[in-house]
Design goal:
Layout lengths: L5 H22 L7 H15 L5 E5 L8 E5 L10 E7 L7 H17 L9 E9 L10 E3 L6 E9 L3
Parallel strand pairs: 3-4
Antiparallel strand pairs: 1-2, 2-3, 4-6, 5-6
Helix pairs in contact: 1-2
């Protein structure tokens, strides 16, 4: 089964969001936000792009019962090929800059401190999506703005060895 890299996945997300930004803009206004929708759309469309890719949702990779949003290359015997992805979304109508930054940082902490030992060495990616070109983002994150109107994405890549 072919593997996808973090850079390839990130580029896929940028392209998909550019092409589907109008849909995301409508969906993000619904009650209960749009993270679940985005998770399913990215997974399904990545599989449609290449049906041989190993794309899984809601995998138990953390201590306890918390699940990751996406896991790529999940069946790889090489931990360094596995990619564990946490997504965070924010609705434009409920923008709270300090709270959103704390939620993103909580996902980083979850990946850094609560990953099961069997997934140490995996590539880790946190991606946050927001409809505010002036959104605050956590320190150490990269960002790309105006993907569709005011849609921005920030991300951080990590690897936890021990």
């Amino acid at each position: 089964m072919p593997a996808i890299t973090v850079a390839q996945f990130r580029d896929f997300v940028f392209t998909w969001m550019y092409e589907n930004g109008a849909r995301a803009e409508r969906v993000q206004l619904l009650d209960w936000g749009w993270e679940g929708w985005l998770q399913a759309e990215l997974a399904g469309n990545l599989r449609a792009y290449d049906s041989t890719l190993d794309v899984r949702r809601e995998q138990l990779v953390f201590d306890g019962k918390q699940r990751t949003d996406l896991m790529l290359n999940a069946s790889s015997a090489v931990p360094g090929q596995r990619i564990i992805v946490e997504l965070k979304t924010l609705r434009a109508t409920e923008y709270n800059k300090p709270a959103f930054v704390k939620e993103i940082e909580a996902d980083v902490d979850k990946l850094q401190y609560h990953l099961k030992a069997t997934h140490k060495g995996a590539q880790l990616l946190v991606m946050a999506f927001y409809f505010d070109a002036n959104a605050a983002i956590p320190a150490g994150f990269q960002s790309r703005q105006n993907i569709h109107k005011d849609l921005g994405i920030c991300w951080k890549e990590m690897v936890i060895i021990d």
